[in-house]
């Protein structure tokens, strides 16, 4: 710390390094006994309670928009029979991880960040360390794991709600045939599509949890700092998640051959 | 017996701002020490460095042979179990009630049954006068109560080193007096090394065995209480008497113009905010409540101080000698009227 080198971007690199360090610490510490089960359950419940309703409310119109858009598009190019498959793929592979990411970062992550940040400025975190208890083990690990679990569950929920919404709009509003909608599922969609979707959700949950914890544990002085930290945590998480989504999608599309090709 | 804390050449800065540099002192095992200093001189930062929450850039903090500045995270957590720390604002866990807060260290670090935990927690709560407030959340009690609850939590594991950040701030004078007594009683009972950070002159005069002062990024002095209490160092004199006249200003440094203007006001008869009496001088030290064991630290300190007495300033020597009984004066072979020329250095004494 004595002689910090300075060049443009050094600060950003340093922050990134510390963020990764926290990520590694969390992974290592999550295997340490005793596991903080109570905290984990409480946090999971808490994150679920702040994210479920908004997620459901967002995913219905999301599914509908995709279904309507694809419905008219496929009609124009004369591929109505693939409407079902296309909208399901779009929802499961892209829309649902993104919706999940937005809500986990926006609702769950901001709550985690604000909670840890206010504990930090009230010196609770310091007190815990002095009492010989690692705040990472005690507070951060259960929160990150809870964010991951809830993220996976939410992703499942968004997929189901989105697909149902898409079905409803396609069949009822656009007079599609239920049979064709369902049949085209199996023509294009495959099980790995669901896997990648859940894996994405898991990784998004991890990133959202780590970023929120990192910003929460390092607020820049005073209550105002906590507000800024929450704000930054959400923005940083969004950027990271969209980038990671892009990377994962690219890898997936390269590695797993599309069905029927 | 408590442990010795050796601090050597410690320097801490935040970015370009140096908080203090080259702080060297030893907290003698089992003794009570007080660190004075105007607001913002880094007393809290010093305490946090002692428990490894902040990393000084230079120097050493050695406890039981381990240097806290450079040891591993794992080792640090081990050493911290010897500490009981009272933070400036209590630092209670906001989501737990007082009972759970105080029980927290017991539940984390011991395998005591809930009944034993209960007994210890209630005993400590009674000690700090919080009986009946077990189920209150930290947000629902006054600042002084939070402070006392924080102290109870710090004491629950019978620490060997107790650090208190301004135990008196937010407390009324009566509770402060009780708290001083509590710390002295505690020292008599468990012989822990205690460091208190404060601006309270009463505590500084009556509680400690050793007294130090931080000012202008340096340790002005640290040593037996008599040395600081009789010092004619301008900073010390101003601080002890709570004057405006002197080197300490509203902001850390006071410039020449302000100093001259204040002197002119004072010469013209405007009070500088202090009472006229000079509170310097050695006053009797607080003793443990009757019935408790004698403080071993007092005896150990007396031997230590008497072995270096000829290196202390004249006023301090007189204060120390005057506080001895005639038998002790005979035993140590000292007399109240014998002025020995002192080679006492004005800066950061290592005693
Ligand atoms: N985390 C930090 N980052 C940057 N500067 C800090 C930090 N903590 C403390 N400081 C600075 O260190 C200096 C000393 O602060 P500290 O809290 O130790 O003062 P203090 O002596 O305890 O004062 P008081 O008697 O008012 O409690 C202040 O100038 C403060 O701005
Ligand atoms: Mg302070």
UniProtKB/TrEMBL annotation, chain A:
Keyword Secreted: no
Membrane-spanning ranges: 45-68, 144-169, 199-217, 229-255
Keyword Ion transport (UniProt): no
Source superkingdom: Bacteria
Keywords on record: Membrane, Transmembrane, Transmembrane helix
Pfam family, one: MlaE
Protein name stated in the entry: ABC transporter permease
Native organism taxonomy: Bacteria, Bacillati, Actinomycetota, Actinomycetes, Pseudonocardiales
TrEMBL record, chain B:
CDD domains: ABC_Org_Solvent_Resistant
Matching PROSITE patterns: ABC_TRANSPORTER_1, ABC_TRANSPORTER_2
Domain ABC transporter stretches: 5-241
Keyword NAD recorded: no
GO molecular function per UniProt: ATP binding
Pfam families: ABC_tran
Entry keyword Transport: yes
Protein name: ABC transporter ATP-binding protein
Region span, Disordered: 253-278
InterPro entries, per database record: AAA+_ATPase, ABC_transporter-like_ATP-bd, ABC_transporter-like_CS, P-loop_NTPase
Lineage of source species: Bacteria, Bacillati, Actinomycetota, Actinomycetes, Pseudonocardiales
Keywords: ATP-binding, Nucleotide-binding, Transport
């Amino acid at each position: 710390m004595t002689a910090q080198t300075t060049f443009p971007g050094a600060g950003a690199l340093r922050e990134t390094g510390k963020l990764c360090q926290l990520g590694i610490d969390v992974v290592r510490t999550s295997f340490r006994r005793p596991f903080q089960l109570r905290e984990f359950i409480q946090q999971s419940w808490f994150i679920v309670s702040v994210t479920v309703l908004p997620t459901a409310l967002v995913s219905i119109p999301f599914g509908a928009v995709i279904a309507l858009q694809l419905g008219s598009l496929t009609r124009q190019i004369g591929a109505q029979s693939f409407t079902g498959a296309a909208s399901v793929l779009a929802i499961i592979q892209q829309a649902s991880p993104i919706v999940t990411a937005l809500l986990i970062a926006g609702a769950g992550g901001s709550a985690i960040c604000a909670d840890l940040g206010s504990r930090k400025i009230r010196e609770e975190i310091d007190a815990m360390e002095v009492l010989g208890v690692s705040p990472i083990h005690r507070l951060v690990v259960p929160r990150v794991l809870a964010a991951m679990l809830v993220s996976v569950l939410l992703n499942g929920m968004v997929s189901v709600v989105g697909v149902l919404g898409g079905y409803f709009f396609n069949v009822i509003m656009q007079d599609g045939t239920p049979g064709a909608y369902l049949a085209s599922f199996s023509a294009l969609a495959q099980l790995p599509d669901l896997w990648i979707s859940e894996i994405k959700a898991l990784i998004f949950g991890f990133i959202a949890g780590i970023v929120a914890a990192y910003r929460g544990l390092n607020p820049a002085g005073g209550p105002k700092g906590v507000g800024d930290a929450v704000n930054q945590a959400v923005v940083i998480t969004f950027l990271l998640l969209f980038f990671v989504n892009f990377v994962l999608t690219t890898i997936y599309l390269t590695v797993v051959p599309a069905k029927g090709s | 017996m408590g442990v010795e804390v050796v601090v050597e050449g410690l320097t801490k800065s935040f970015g370009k701002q140096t908080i203090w540099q080259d702080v060297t002192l030893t907290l003698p095992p089992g003794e009570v020490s007080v660190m004075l200093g105007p607001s913002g001189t880094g007393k809290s930062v010093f305490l946090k460095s002692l428990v490894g929450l902040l990393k000084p850039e230079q120097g050493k903090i050695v406890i039981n042979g381990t240097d806290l500045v450079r040891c591993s995270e794992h080792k640090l957590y081990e050493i911290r179990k010897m500490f009981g720390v009272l933070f400036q604002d209590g630092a209670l866990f906001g989501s737990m009630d007082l009972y759970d807060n105080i029980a927290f260290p017991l539940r984390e670090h011991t395998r005591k049954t809930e009944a034993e935990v209960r007994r210890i927690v209630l005993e400590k709560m009674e000690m700090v006068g919080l009986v009946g407030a077990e189920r209150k959340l930290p947000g629902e009690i006054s600042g002084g109560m939070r402070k006392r609850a924080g102290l109870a939590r710090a004491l629950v594991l019978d620490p060997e080193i107790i650090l208190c950040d301004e135990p008196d701030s937010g407390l009324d004078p009566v509770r402060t007096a009780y708290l001083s007594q509590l710390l002295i009683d505690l020292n008599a009972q468990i012989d822990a090394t205690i460091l208190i950070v404060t601006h309270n002159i009463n505590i500084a005069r009556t509680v400690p065995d050793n007294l130090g002062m931080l000012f202008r990024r340096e340790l002005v002095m640290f040593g037996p209480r008599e040395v600081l209490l009789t010092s004619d160092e301008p900073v010390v004199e101003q601080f002890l008497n709570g004057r405006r006249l002197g080197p300490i200003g509203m902001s850390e440094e006071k410039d020449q113009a302000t100093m001259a203007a204040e002197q002119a006001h004072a010469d013209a008869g405007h009070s500088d905010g202090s009472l006229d009496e000079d509170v310097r001088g050695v006053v009797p030290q607080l003793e443990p409540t009757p019935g408790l064991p004698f403080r071993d630290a007092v005896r150990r300190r007396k031997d230590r101080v008497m072995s270096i007495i000829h290196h202390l300033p004249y006023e301090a020597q007189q204060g120390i000698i005057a506080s001895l009984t005639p038998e002790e004066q005979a035993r140590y072979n000292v007399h109240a009227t014998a002025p020995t020329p002192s080679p006492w250095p004005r800066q950061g004494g290592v005693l």
